[in-house]
Amino acid sequence: MSQTSQQKLLLLSASREGQTDYLEHVLPMMDVFLPSEVKEILFIPYAGFAMGYDAYEAKVSQALQPIKRKVVSIHQFDDPVKAVENAQAIAIGGGNTFYLLKQLYDNELIDAIRKKVNAGTPYMGWSAGSNMAGLTICTTNDMPIVQPRSFNALALVPFQINPHYTDYQPPNHNGETRAERIYEYTRANPHRYVVGIPEGTALERQGNQLFLRGAKDGLIFRDGEGIKSIKADSNISWLL
Amino acid sequence: MSQTSQQKLLLLSASREGQTDYLEHVLPMMDVFLPSEVKEILFIPYAGFAMGYDAYEAKVSQALQPIKRKVVSIHQFDDPVKAVENAQAIAIGGGNTFYLLKQLYDNELIDAIRKKVNAGTPYMGWSAGSNMAGLTICTTNDMPIVQPRSFNALALVPFQINPHYTDYQPPNHNGETRAERIYEYTRANPHRYVVGIPEGTALERQGNQLFLRGAKDGLIFRDGEGIKSIKADSNISWLL
């Protein structure tokens, strides 16, 4: 990337790590990431439609109390595009990636969010909200319960993200492992990088710099290049 | 369903159950299912693109030797639509559901297979090949590595299928369970039934009759109706 980027992204693998409380383990990362002038976060709850947007807003609002930021959900606004244009920071929560992307398209929010974040407004996502930041949703783990207009996502980074990365295979189960699924993706899409981020880790972008955060290693997949391990807290700006 | 159906379907959850060899546990079911006049099976290998169509054809061919049916893959024919029209029986193997459906659309095979099977040609599928027989691929477990033209599948049965059904959750992992994923599907698609078939089981349709085969129970999900268990070998023709 030759242009200077203004982007500030915190892309979390998951809202929990092991037995932690909801968003508990990510609060220190969020607090460092968010500029002190950000007092209010515009929250996009679409992925959690099954629990209801009011309930999701309340849950995130409560979880973020320790870092003293107000959380307001986009479903409270009459004009969601305007809500994005006026946001101090944007956060997209986890849930179903397909439902989320369909709602972003149906509410004409894809271009609005991309433009806003490219201009420097901080963006945080976890799980489905991190998938959104990749080129497409082709490496989500979620069930395709609805069909979005396109698989193209926000493309805030020029690669694919696989959140909740794990290579655990249930005993006596014959579905594909995560690594096998991603391998198939790379075979069908030869020039794309996929970054697998285990629960407890995150990608942080500050302009033209990209880091893996958290205490676990991540993985990078690409067709013909095998699987590369990336160390916790390493600089992986070459991916941009 | 008021019309008389000619359909013969065997929709297997998986190619393996526990530690069995490839397709080993399904051979007795296939042998009973296939009419004796069927000597050759047209095999559709698209879901297994990552292993290569020749290798996939050879693997299935070898696995079906004990039941004395010849297996010929559709990629050996110049005209795949004509190959379907001339088939004695059709089998679609497992792999990636999205890649499979995209290839069926790109090769104009959706209507051809539907017409042929509705006229009485036996259809067998396992894993992704069973997903194909449902209304849509919205309850696949696979990664959406490519985008098919539509999520609409062959609609050989008027409900959704979830193969490899399990409610196992890896220890300390925070992704959704299978039941949670299907629950979200039913919330987003309130009038649809989803049938979860565990590895080792199958759905068998003979005209207007539908049975669960195998030694394990299946599950039926629908919005507002909770989860119903269906006993092994029970008649579930009310779903048609």
UniProtKB/TrEMBL annotation, chains A, B:
<dbReference type="GO" id="GO:0005737">
    <property type="term" value="C:cytoplasm"/>
</dbReference>
<dbReference type="Pfam" id="PF03575">
    <property type="entry name" value="Peptidase_S51"/>
</dbReference>
<dbReference type="GO" id="GO:0008236">
    <property type="term" value="F:serine-type peptidase activity"/>
</dbReference>
<keyword id="KW-0720">Serine protease</keyword>
<keyword id="KW-0378">Hydrolase</keyword>
<dbReference type="GO" id="GO:0016805">
    <property type="term" value="F:dipeptidase activity"/>
</dbReference>
<keyword id="KW-0963">Cytoplasm</keyword>
<dbReference type="InterPro" id="IPR005320">
    <property type="entry name" value="Peptidase_S51"/>
</dbReference>
<dbReference type="GO" id="GO:0006508">
    <property type="term" value="P:proteolysis"/>
</dbReference>
<dbReference type="InterPro" id="IPR029062">
    <property type="entry name" value="Class_I_gatase-like"/>
</dbReference>
<keyword id="KW-0224">Dipeptidase</keyword>
<keyword id="KW-0645">Protease</keyword>
<protein>
    <recommendedName>
        <fullName>dipeptidase E</fullName>
        <ecNumber>3.4.13.21</ecNumber>
    </recommendedName>
</protein>
<comment type="similarity">
    <text>Belongs to the peptidase S51 family.</text>
</comment>
